[in-house]
UniProtKB/TrEMBL annotation:
Residues 179-210 are annotated as: Disordered. Residues 7-148 form the ISXO2-like transposase domain. Residues 182-198 have a biased composition (Acidic residues). This is ISXO2-like transposase domain-containing protein. InterPro entries: IS1016-like_transposase (IPR053164), Tnp_ISXO2-like (IPR024445). It comes from the Eukaryota. Residues 199-210 have a biased composition (Basic and acidic residues). It holds the Pfam family DDE_Tnp_IS1595.
Length: 210
C-alpha cells in the first residue's frame, strides 16, 4: 500500500495510541478471536490518525511504528499494555489509563476514548466487506480517507484526484512512503495475556464493540 505520511504530535500535542483485533469470535462464541491486529494513533488537536495492520503487539513491533509516526516530545496516552513501558525513555511523555479499572482515570482525567471510538467506526465501515487479512490495509486506508474528507469538509472525489496526482508525480516521491502494512516480528505474543492491567485480546467484531 502507498500512503501519504504525516507525522503526528510534537511538543504540546497529545496522541492516543491503542491496538485492537479486528475479526470474529471463533465459532461465534467465547473470547478467542480470529482476525487481524491493528495498531493506531489519534492526534487530539488535529484529528489526524494512522491505522496499520500488524502481526503482533510486541514492543519491538509497536515501538518501530510509534517512532515512525509520532514526533518526539509528544504526550502519548495509552492503556497499560506492557509494550509501551519504555515510552518515557524514548523521548515521549507517557500517560496511562488502566482499563481493567476504568475508562477515564478519576484522578488525572487521562483517557483514550477517542481512539477507542475510532475502532468502533472503522469496524462499522468494514461490515459489508469480506475481511481477508490481505485487504485490511486497503480497508483502513479507505476509512481514514473518508474520515479526513468528512472532518475537513472536503469533496472526496476532488480530494482523491488531487492526491492521485501527487502520488504519481515523480517530483514528489520524497513525500511518499511505500508501506505494505507488514510490521511483523517472528515472536508473536498476540495470544498472551499481559500483567492484568488490560485485556489480552481486544475484540473489534460484528457482535460487540471494543
Amino acid at each position: 500500500m502507498v500512503v501519504r505520511k504525516v507525522k503526528l504530535g510534537g511538543c504540546g500535542r497529545t496522541v492516543e495510541i491503542d491496538e485492537s483485533k479486528f475479526g470474529r469470535r471463533k465459532h461465534h462464541r467465547g473470547h478467542r478471536v480470529e482476525g487481524q491486529w491493528v495498531f493506531g494513533g489519534y492526534e487530539r488537536e488535529t484529528g489526524n490518525c494512522f491505522m496499520i495492520p500488524v502481526e503482533n503487539r510486541t514492543a519491538e513491533t509497536l515501538l518501530v511504528i510509534i517512532k515512525d509516526w509520532i514526533k518526539p516530545g509528544t504526550t502519548i496516552i495509552s492503556d497499560c499494555w506492557r509494550a509501551y513501558n519504555t515510552l518515557n525513555n524514548e523521548g515521549y511523555q507517557h500517560l496511562t489509563v488502566n482499563h481493567s479499572l476504568h475508562f477515564k482515570d478519576p484522578e488525572t482525567g487521562v483517557h483514550s476514548n477517542t481512539i477507542e471510538s475510532s475502532w468502533r467506526h472503522s469496524k462499522a465501515s468494514m461490515s459489508n466487506y469480506c475481511r481477508k487479512k490481505a485487504f485490511y490495509a486497503g480497508y483502513l486506508a479507505k476509512f481514514m480517507f473518508t474520515k479526513h474528507c468528512r472532518s475537513h469538509k472536503l469533496d472526496p472525489t476532488a480530494e482523491l484526484f488531487k492526491h492521485a496526482g501527487i502520488l504519481y508525480d515523480a517530483n514528489n516521491k520524497d513525500n511518499m512512503i511505500f508501506n505494505d502494512g507488514d510490521y511483523s516480528d517472528n515472536d508473536d505474543d498476540s495470544d498472551d495475556d499481559d500483567d492484568g492491567n488490560d485485556d489480552g485480546e481486544k475484540y473489534v467484531g460484528n457482535d460487540d464493540d471494543k
